[in-house]
Amino acid sequence: MHITRRKAAAAAPFAAVAVSAAEPAPRRALRIAHLTDIHVQPELDAARGLESCFGHVQSLAERGEGRADLIVTGGDTVMDCMETDLARTNLQWDLWRKSVADHCSLEVRSVLGNHDVWGWTRAKAGTTGEEPLYGKRLACERFGRPLPYESFDRGGWHIVLLDSTFPHEQSYIGRLDDAQWDWLEKDLAAVPAATPVVIFSHIPILSMHPLAATAPQAQGRPDFRVSAQLLHTDNRRFQSLFSRHRNVKACVSGHLHVVESIDYCGVRYLCNGAVSAGWWKGMHGQTDFGYALVDLFSDGTVQSRYVTYGWQARG
Ligand SMILES: [Zn+2]
């Protein structure tokens, strides 16, 4: 059919509206299964529990769900090696390695947790600090990478894995060290402003839980305070950083074994329960054995859902 110029011009505004209305809905760019606080150990059949969790993640498609593209483990991979000797430490890490090798076909990226740091509590671990794999070097070797933090791009998103555990009096507090702060500031500066960013840390950068769970004897007192082990003590510096990088959309953590979601100053803070619930003994408060499906969308939005995988505590 011949269209006159006049008719074409008259149709143009309508065509423009039609194109706008047909703009595609945000699509899911990446689905991450976030398995945090696994705490694998020889006791309580924990390795079977972890394998059951891997099985659940890998059968999402059979359940009519979208498959996960990637597993991010959120730290506290092993029950504890901060206070244990090398034999017990290796026993736990070997369980982790075997479970992944034999029961997980998805790509796994890992955050370090405080319980993954070997031997800082020297009096209990029997360490001197001179051992070749002392501290975070052991977990880095097990994860096959040089540093306890890293970043990578996937599905149009920039993904940062931070190391929250900072040494303090043979134990730890939550914060980045200076070298990591320098690295993070440069890392985010190199990300295009249109690329959304999600940050994973073991210890939450922000959380309500340390306030809500303060010990009863501290309630109503002027010296009410929050433990420096329960959230990042450098969180003001994060707020300042995020105000300069508005493309940081979400911060995802573990450590507290609770399920929590906060929207604060344009950033979503998610704490995603625990694969081990109450260290494999049963529920941790209201938290059942589970993991989170974190969906990252092309428009920079984030959705997260906690999924139980049917594990029951074994005596
Ligand atoms: Zn922890």
Brief characterization of the structure:
The protein is of the alpha/beta class and 315 residues long. 27% of the residues lie in helices and 22% in strands. It binds zinc ion.
How would you describe this structure in keywords?
315 residues; alpha/beta; Purple Acid Phosphatase, chain A, domain 2; 5-stranded mixed sheet; 8 helices; binds zinc ion
Walkthrough of the structure:
- The structure is a single chain.
- This protein is of the alpha/beta class and 315 residues long.
- The chain has a single domain (27-308), classed as Metallo-dependent phosphatases (Purple Acid Phosphatase, chain A, domain 2), CATH 3.60.21.10.
- It has 8 helices and 13 strands.
- The protein has helices spanning 5-21, 46-58, 86-103, 122-125, 137-143, 178-189, 209-212, 235-244, and strands at 28-35, 70-73, 108-110, 150-154, 157-161, 165-168, 171-174, 197-200, 248-253, 259-264, 267-272, 290-297, 302-308.
- The protein is globular, with a radius of gyration of 22 Å.
- Zinc ion is lined by residues 76, 113-115, 202, 255.
Runs in which pLDDT lies below 50 for 5 or more consecutive residues are: 1-19
Question: Which fold name corresponds to the CATH topology?
Answer: Purple Acid Phosphatase, chain A, domain 2
Major sheet details: 6 strands, mixed
Number of helices: 8
N to C succession of SSEs: HEHEHEHHEEEEHEHHEEEEE
β-strand number: 13
**Helix percentage:** 25-40%
Mean pLDDT: 93
> Would you state the CATH class?
Alpha Beta
Q: Which class best fits the helix and strand makeup?
A: alpha/beta
Chain-wise SSE layout:
Blueprint: H1 5-21, E1 28-35, H2 46-58, E2 70-73, H3 86-103, E3 108-110, H4 122-125, H5 137-143, E4 150-154, E5 157-161, E6 165-168, E7 171-174, H6 178-189, E8 197-200, H7 209-212, H8 235-244, E9 248-253, E10 259-264, E11 267-272, E12 290-297, E13 302-308
Parallel strand pairs: 1-2, 2-3, 5-8, 8-9, 9-11
Antiparallel strand pairs: 1-12, 4-5, 6-7, 10-11, 12-13
Helix pairs in contact: 2-3
